């Protein structure tokens, strides 16, 4: 795959292609640098949506609908002939992004495999057979004589899982260890170490093969990345690749909505009603200790800027607290500059963006720091106490803790949001400022409904 800066050549392949690719090798396509990044972001939206659906425990039928919707929304292209290219290019870009650590590889492999599984199920029978041939799976369809000897057992298994015992179905005889999910869920008949897999369950065979191919490819890509690509592409692709694995896919909340200005007199009320736990913790600590270290100051200050606190109010707010600890003069000398700096009024005058969850979750607070994400950085005891303080207890609290144990921190935050506001948050929480604006919206609607 060659990356170019400008003009895109037409797709090299004008012949009809299957809709589902096996991603065996990088395509000989020229890709504009902009598309390189944009396609990857679109695919990332699909994979993140899948990850969210799995973490929420969606059933297979719900996952099938979710995958179909995610694919339709994010992977379309104004030129239908380009959809296949977008699929392949985005996969190979994300392979580069996610080959770099064991943890990234594991996540990517799991999401791509799930995506493949559901896309395969959406293919016609004809295409499914073509894909099996393309995989060169060494399994032969069961011959009639052998089928007759096990027919009754096959019918029994089909009935036990609520499927029609269609005697026209083709069966494949495969070593049972190659279809662990079918064996685990007792969906196949097993005899002498072989599983008898009907055509409608063949997805398991293909997925096992797909997973194994991608897993090996990720290890190889990682070797190439470390030995050559990273250095060769250090001015062009490397910065994009490094940013993509940490990328946040929603609005940046640099500027609050026109209507979303907040005033100092309301700030305590807003903190207790609508701040997510990370910001509420910083806010409470600032009120309590009259001080926050650098990481906490920047995380909270940018959040406050994003929710609509004007610079003058921000300065007054920080000064009121810090003065109690270090005195007004020292605040003006040592701390006011960085508050103004976050608002783009000092230094390079960059308008800094409020931090998204991913950035906060991946921060590494030291002793005495209060920034970071409480779902990731608090002990279980402290997190339970904080949730109790927010009015989230009992079963709801246990569900939150369950997500935390499985390292789904944003989902834990989403469940907290849902418990507090008594309504579902289907988009999930991806940004503290999104938490705030969703919360405010719900509260305003409730007020309007009662007046
Ligand atoms: Fe804050 Fe995001 Fe963590 Fe929620 S998930 S506490 S919004 S960093």
TrEMBL record:
InterPro entries: DNA_primase_C, DNA_primase_lsu_euk, DNA_primase_lsu_euk/arc. The keyword GTP-binding does not apply. One of its GO terms (biological process) is DNA replication, synthesis of primer. Residues 268-436 form the DNA primase large subunit C-terminal domain. [4Fe-4S] cluster binds at residues 278, 357, 373, 413. GO terms for cellular component: alpha DNA polymerase:primase complex. Its cofactor is [4Fe-4S] cluster. Keywords: 4Fe-4S, DNA replication, DNA-binding, Iron, Iron-sulfur, Metal-binding, Primosome. The keyword DNA damage does not apply. It holds the Pfam family DNA_primase_lrg_N. GO terms for molecular function: 4 iron, 4 sulfur cluster binding; DNA binding; metal ion binding. Belongs to the eukaryotic-type primase large subunit family. This is Probable DNA primase large subunit isoform X2. It comes from Ananas comosus. The lineage of its organism: Eukaryota, Viridiplantae, Streptophyta, Embryophyta, Tracheophyta.
